[in-house]
């Protein structure tokens, strides 16, 4: 059994119900990711998980859960099958006189004078 995407419809009355549904979903083994779509009232789970066991756990915890769809988690990219557009070549001319280099920094040396002749440690 490979990775699959399970969509379960649940009633989300408040934030507490959403949190509880999310905790139940991620507590099962084999779950790679979980997503709650509150506006649709759906919970999406991706991974190697038993869809029926997940729905039963949600029914026990929330009281209502409806298994909406179970499908492969693999995304099919049909756009990649098309031929790629031809690429255009751009030529860049190099003009060495257009580059200006900064002058090197000049360091100034200042003489250091001891205020106390001799070592203060000895």
Question: Could you give a short description of this structure?
Answer:
With about 120 residues, this protein is an alpha+beta fold. The protein contains two helices and four strands; from the N terminus they run βαββαβ.
Provide the fold topology.
Blueprint: E1 4-10, H1 15-27, E2 31-37, E3 42-47, H2 51-62, E4 65-72
Antiparallel strand pairs: 1-3, 1-4, 2-3
Helix pairs in contact: 1-2
Write structural notes for this entry:
There is one protein chain. This protein has 122 residues and is α+β, with helices and mostly antiparallel strands. It has a domain at 4-72: 2-Layer Sandwich (Alpha-Beta Plaits). The protein is elongated, with a radius of gyration of 34 Å. The chain has helices at residues 15-27, 51-62; strands at residues 4-10, 31-37, 42-47, 65-72. The relative contact order is 0.20.
Shape: elongated
Strand order of the largest sheet: 2-3-1-4
Radius of gyration: 34 Å
CATH-derived architecture of the domain at 4-72: 2-Layer Sandwich
Whole-number mean pLDDT: 77
Succession of helices and strands = EHEEHE
Report on the biggest sheet.
4 strands, antiparallel
Uncertain segments: none
Number of extended strands: 4
Task: Report strand %.
Answer: 15-25%
First-residue to last-residue Cα separation: 82 Å
Portion of residues within helices: 10-25%
How many helix segments? 2
CATH topology of the domain at 4-72: Alpha-Beta Plaits
Structural class: alpha+beta
CATH top level of the domain at 4-72?
Alpha Beta
